[in-house]
């Protein structure tokens, strides 16, 4: 019910000359019997709530009370004031949202508060009655007079209270006396209760949900523990139902001990969030617990449930010959996003990153393959400094590619990790040799402050190794899934406290509070860009390095730039391939088709131009197919090159040649 609407309705009611139902003889007799003041009482205060035109207020004044008469309708207060007897003061207050406590009299409170035929009109009865109770003195009485629902017609029941509502009102008082007065009920309430709220369950519910904890525990080789459930014929994580009053951490520790005889401390449990899906007509709630710190060896304790425990390489779980329990698969994909394909969906509510440290472990094979990769990069001249070799030897690349076998993770190739609906790669772990080249061009030193545009985690971890504990790394990623994936991998590998991850559009640079006082020493962009947003330059310190895969003339080149006064001066340039920029820096490279010839033209920096007649030219006879292709390719190349890049000073920059130096790109 709208209080404002009610106030306006009552204002119109009284303004039209209508009135409240007059006090009945029964009501007067009851009030006189129960509320008459003792003869020795010098003065007592009363509050009449929803006073109308003030009849009850005047009756109480005649009985010896000094009365504050309150109503929410202005016309009622005006009429009550005109008719008021000595001892009655009228006030207009919005009863349900006004400050009734402002009327508290001097001394201990009101001896009497009355509310006649009004309680059923209030939207928040319980709260309003509690506020009125707080205004009573120790011996005070709240008198509620209400039409009784059983004694009125159906259409009038909305202004009445029934027995259930009357009993509910009386529950909050130490003494409640009920008097029947014709078609109304009079409640005399004394001594408001102040006991703490009690708690009660509803009737036994129909089973509708089940809640449990799935425990993802890994050993010193980075392998995850799974148990074989013979009755269900599935592999599953250690897991179990939450006991009443039990914390999720305690459930994880208890289930791990009861099921597999592994012992952990609740403080070593990292909670990763809650999964919600449906199974067998029930809502299934699964909390994911991550543990790396434990003691003991897996032992079968409940053979009727799990008759053997085995450690599995996470990647190998992708090809288990037997089924994997769905809830376990969902939990594994939270720990290692992208590990398992086509897992039935479940809503994941992540928890804020906890401060429980995880111990990163890995198989000896991964160490060997990583060392071999570094040897190959060094022989090819890519990791040509001790610092680069140490970084590539230290950071576990496979940990950022859980969906790939170890051998594939350590090949000197880029690996796509996220695809759009058309199958185009939207995120990847870059080719190690290209990463080494870009890191070298960034001129990273211990203590440097670095901004990376584009997530994934592996490159940011390499940067963290190069700048050391005294440096800082901020990584901005626009895609929520890639951001969440990067966050998990940084936590798993121990780099979460060394890389500050931000979800946002990288064309805007870093958030202001993360920009160092003098700017970043280096900005490394790991997505292809067709421009240099001014925020990158403005956030770069004087003498700092910007390394960016820049689209020029239809080709992408990794350009190293150094900030010198008002310009960026190129230092190195080489061809490369990177996934495209998203957000404000996104461009559409969908080709404009040339009729039905099967050919098209991509427009780099300008809107598409009319292609009228070009299809007819291509279809003209007299030349061979080879010549036709040359004609087709030439306009496309020319279009790309002529578009060029329009610089702020009005000049147009063409694509520099490979190995070009001292190419100035103005801000």
| Average pLDDT figure | 84
DSSP strand (E) fraction? 25-35%
Uncertain runs: 1-5, 622-667
Estimated radius of gyration: 39 Å
Main sheet strand line-up = 20-19-18-21-22-23-24-29
Specify the number of helices.
17
Query: What is the terminal-to-terminal distance?
Result: 61 Å
Structure in words:
With 667 residues, the chain is α/β, with parallel strands linked by helices. It is built from 17 helices and 29 strands. An eight-stranded mixed beta sheet has the order 20-19-18-21-22-23-24-29. The protein has a seven-stranded mixed beta sheet with strand order 3-2-1-4-5-7-6, with helices on both faces. A hairpin with a 4-residue loop joins strand 9 and strand 10. The protein is elongated. The relative contact order is 0.05.
Top keywords for this entry?
667 residues, alpha/beta, eight-stranded mixed sheet, 17 helices, 26% helix, 27% strand, elongated, disordered C terminus
């Amino acid at each position: 019910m709208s209080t404002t609407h009610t106030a306006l309705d009552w204002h119109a009611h009284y303004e039209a000359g209508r009135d409240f139902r007059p006090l009945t003889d029964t009501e007067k007799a009851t009030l006189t019997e129960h509320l008459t003041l003792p003869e020795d009482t010098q003065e007592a205060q009363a509050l009449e709530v929803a006073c109308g035109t003030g009849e009850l207020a005047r009756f109480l004044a005649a009985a010896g009370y000094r009365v504050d008469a309150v109503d929410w309708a202005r016309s009622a207060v005006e009429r009550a004031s005109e008719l008021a007897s000595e001892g009655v003061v009228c006030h207009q207050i919005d009863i349900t949202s006004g400050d009734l406590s402002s009327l508290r009299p001097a001394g201990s409170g009101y001896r009497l508060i009355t509310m006649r035929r009004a309680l059923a009109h209030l939207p928040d009865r319980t709260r309003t009655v509690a506020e009125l109770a707080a205004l009573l003195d120790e011996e005070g009485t709240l008198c509620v007079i209400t039409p009784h629902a059983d004694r009125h017609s159906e259409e009038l029941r909305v202004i009445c209270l029934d027995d259930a509502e009357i009993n509910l009102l009386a529950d909050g008082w130490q003494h409640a006396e009920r008097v029947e007065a014709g078609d109304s009920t009079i409640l005399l309430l004394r001594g408001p209760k102040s006991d703490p709220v009690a708690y009660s369950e509803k009737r036994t519910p129909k089973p509708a949900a089940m809640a449990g904890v799935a425990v993802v525990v890994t050993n010193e080789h980075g392998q995850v523990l799974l148990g074989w459930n013979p009755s269900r014929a599935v592999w599953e994580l250690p897991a179990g139902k939450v006991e009443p009053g039990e914390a999720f951490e305690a459930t994880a520790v208890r289930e791990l001990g009861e099921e597999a005889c592994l012992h952990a401390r609740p403080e070593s449990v990292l909670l990763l969030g809650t999964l919600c899906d449906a199974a067998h007509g029930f809502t299934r709630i699964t909390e994911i617990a991550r543990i790396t710190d434990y003691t003991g060896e897996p032992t079968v304790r409940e053979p009727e449930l799990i008759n053997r425990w085995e450690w599995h390489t996470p990647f190998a779980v992708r090809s288990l010959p037997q089924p994997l329990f769905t809830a376990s698969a969902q939990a594994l994909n939270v720990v290692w996003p992208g590990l398992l394909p086509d897992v039935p969906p479940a809503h994941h509510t992540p928890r804020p990153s906890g401060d429980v440290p995880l111990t990163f472990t890995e198989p000896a094979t991964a160490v060997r393959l990583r060392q071999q990769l570094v040897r190959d990069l060094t022989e090819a001249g890519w990791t040509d400094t001790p610092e680069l070799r140490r970084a590539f030897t230290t950071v576990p690349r496979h940990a950022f590619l859980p969906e790939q076998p170890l051998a594939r993770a350590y090949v000197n190739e880029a690996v796509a990790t996220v695809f759009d609906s058309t199958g185009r790669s939207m995120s990847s772990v870059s080719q190690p040799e290209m990463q080494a080249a870009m890191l070298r061009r960034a001129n990273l030193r211990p203590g440097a402050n670095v901004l990376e545009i584009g997530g994934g985690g592996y490159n940011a971890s390499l940067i963290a190794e190069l700048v050391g504990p005294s440096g800082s790394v901020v990584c901005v990623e626009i895609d929520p899934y890639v951001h969440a994936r990067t966050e998990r991998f940084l936590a798993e590998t121990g780099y979460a406290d060394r890389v500050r991850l931000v979800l946002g559009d990288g064309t805007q640079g870093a958030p202001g509070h993360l920009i160092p006082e003098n700017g970043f020493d280096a900005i490394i962009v790991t997505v292809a860009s067709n421009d240099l947003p001014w925020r990158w330059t403005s956030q770069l310190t004087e003498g700092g390095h910007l390394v960016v895969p820049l689209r020029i003339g239809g080709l992408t080149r990794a350009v190293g730039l150094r900030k010198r006064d008002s310009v960026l001066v190129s230092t190195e340039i080489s061809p490369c391939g990177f996934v495209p920029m998203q957000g404000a820096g996104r461009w559409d490279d969908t080709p404009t088709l040339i009729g039905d010839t099967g050919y098209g033209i991509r427009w780099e920096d300008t809107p598409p131009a009319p292609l009228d007649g070009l299809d007819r030219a291509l279809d003209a006879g007299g030349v061979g197919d080879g010549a036709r292709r040359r004609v087709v390719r030439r306009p496309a190349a020319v279009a790309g090159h002529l578009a060029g890049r329009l610089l702020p000073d009005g000049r147009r920059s063409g694509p520099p040649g490979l190995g070009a130096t001292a190419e100035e790109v103005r801000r």
